[in-house]
Here is the input.
Amino acid sequence: MSPTVWKAKGSKAKLDVTFRTGEDTPAIVNISFYGNKTTPRNVSSVSLRGMETECPLEFSFIIFAAPDKNELRVSFFADKDELVELLKAEPITLAAQVDGIEYVHTPKKNFYKLKDKFLIAISVH
Here is the structure.
């Protein structure tokens, strides 16, 4: 799924999903977190939430930090089945604890178009 922008009061994130096929392969969710004044340093919990569904993301590794952009890019694993169930929900939020502050990000409208196309594509196999 192409990268999408998510906003919260005092924070911004850019999320992209890589959905790999095959047995026992998790989905990969890469997220860039942007600080207003400083580069984020610690992302302690992240989950996608929709209706009564939650898909926790498991920390994998830090991809890079870009202090000139106040950006921290982090890679996470997600259970593929949980992620697909979550993507069926609306609305969806991204909850993240960054540097000790809990943010609830909401996606821009283009996310919903992309996720609907993604759900159709994976159902065709």
The first strand starts at residue 4 and ends at 8.
